[in-house]
Amino acid sequence: DIQMTQSPSTLSASVGDRVTITCRASQSISSWLAWYQQKPGKAPKLLIYEASTLENGVPSRFTGSGSGTEFTLTISSLQPDDFATYHCQQYHSYAYTFGQGTKLEIK
Amino acid sequence: EVQLVESGGGLVKPGRSLRLSCTGSGFTLGDYAMNWFRQAPGKGLEWVGFIRSKPYGGTTQYAASVKGRFTISRDESKSIVYLQMNNLKTEDTAVYYCTRDRDAAPYCNGGRCYWGPPWFDPRGQGTRVTVSS
Hints:
Radius of gyration of chain A: 13 Å
Radius of gyration of chain B: 14 Å
Largest interface: A-B, 24 and 24 residues
Order of helices and strands of chain B: EEEEEEEEEEEEE
Number of strands of chain B: 13
Helix content of chain B: under 10%
Oligomer: heterodimer
Distance between the termini of chain A: 36 Å
Number of helices of chain A: 0
Largest sheet of chain B: 7 strands, mixed
Helix content of chain A: under 10%
Strand content of chain B: over 45%
Shape of chain A: globular
Largest sheet of chain A: 7 strands, mixed
Structural class of chain A: mainly beta
Strand content of chain A: over 45%
Shape of chain B: globular
């Protein structure tokens, strides 16, 4: 299976900050990468797919980039609603696999 | 509006069976690939299995951890996808989510098709399965 390594595991930031989360695949997955936001007790929400395509309705402050094995999710100006856990996921090959998650906390 | 609602979870003893349901609305279930995922308490997300859309044969694939014990099927007349879980183990304890692929058709190139991405209903809460004696 393809291993996904996500960092950092926890990130403390303030409203208005710019933050970046990194995801690394153990082998090339081309651009078959998605980012999800998850809040406690809720299902994940698809933010970005194909590494950089913004899902409908997702604010433009979310940006995804990368291809091959290195990917990033950037939030340009944190809003109160953005404090959540973020997951990267490869859908290049079965078994689909996820990063360990990044919990974005208010500083 | 697309909606996915999971049900059927509960408390079950090791070795027993349980069947989860995922009822879809706002779209034609048979036109889409569907996945099941799970999340153990305090842990990350884990893919469980997948059923291809009807036009692509409706075949299934499973994670190694559940292969031979779990079966995904669908009843298009009811717009339901099922996850039949047999010989449950304590490590199967988790919240289970179903997803629909974002798009009806995979991307196919050079004889290979790429499915996904999986779309979770953000209003969903999954269904909780607890395996304990």
